[in-house]
Design a protein that fits this description.
The chain is built from two helices and nine strands; from the N terminus they run H-E-E-E-E-E-E-E-E-E-H. The chain is of the alpha+beta class. The protein has a single domain, classed as Immunoglobulin-like, CATH 2.60.40.
Length: 145
């Protein structure tokens, strides 16, 4: 009888840690009303996330915000790109209320500009990952040399 209780106790303690460890590297998670300041290390066309914080960072290369829900329940994802090159990323949107998730449409962000994506009602969480420079931009720069 003591052994099953010990197993349950261990699972209760280690379960949440396994979920945290299962988070993808280079992932940024936002909820409505959040703003995240992100810094990256450039590795060719790929970007490695060095830090993502909610503390204001004047040197952040990306400023990502998810607006609070409006009266219709919709939110807007806004990404400010401080890089001189165009970026692309992948992402998912999740609704805990509906217990559903879906990929975000690919949306490139022009270097030095801001991009926005309107999200449908009931989105509670957005996860962004796989940040990289737009390949077409890299090809244009290579052909200039």
């Amino acid at each position: 009888m003591k052994r099953p209780l010990l197993c349950l106790f261990v699972l209760a303690i280690l379960g949440p840690l396994a979920l945290i460890a299962g988070e993808k590297a280079n992932t940024i998670r936002l909820h409505p009303g959040d703003t995240v300041y992100a810094r990256f290390q450039e590795k060719g066309k790929k970007l490695k996330l060095l830090s993502a914080t909610k503390e204001k960072d004047a040197n952040a290369q990306l400023v990502i915000s998810l607006s609070a829900k409006d009266k219709d329940g919709t939110t807007t994802l806004k990404i400010e790109n401080a890089f001189s090159d165009d970026l692309v990323y992948k992402g998912t949107m999740r609704s805990h209320v509906l217990d559903r998730h879906a990929p975000l449409a690919d949306c490139p962000i022009v270097g030095g500009k801001m991009g926005t994506v309107s999200l449908p009602p009931l989105v509670d969480e957005v996860t962004l990952f796989d940040f990289q420079f737009e390949p077409a931009t890299l090809l244009e720069k290579d052909s200039d040399h």
